[in-house]
Amino acid sequence: xxxxxxxxxxxxxxxxxxxxxxxxxxxxxxxxxxxxxxxxxxxxxxxxxxxxxxxxxxxxxxxxxxxxxxxxxxxxxxxxxxxxx
Length: 85
Hints:
By secondary structure, the chain is mainly α. It has one domain (13-82). The protein is 39% helix and 0% strand. The chain contains four helices and no strands. Mean pLDDT is 84; it is low at 1-11. It holds the Pfam family Whib. It is found in: Cytoplasm. Keywords: 4Fe-4S, Cytoplasm, Disulfide bond, DNA-binding, Iron, Iron-sulfur, Metal-binding, Transcription, Transcription regulation. Belongs to the WhiB family.
């Protein structure tokens, strides 16, 4: 499974922020767990990440449906969208 962490050289400038993300340094397994698995570790890493807000905004703007983005799970992002942020 490919994730937002798979950056190729020459990635578009609007995705350059991903290179600074803590998830890019830890690997995608925490952020794309198997269904029913805990996202606690991913959220802990996100909480320490300096670009968490940018990541969350990207996920909401691009309707990312899987994984932990900006410290929120899929379900939490759906709820945020439903309530109008």
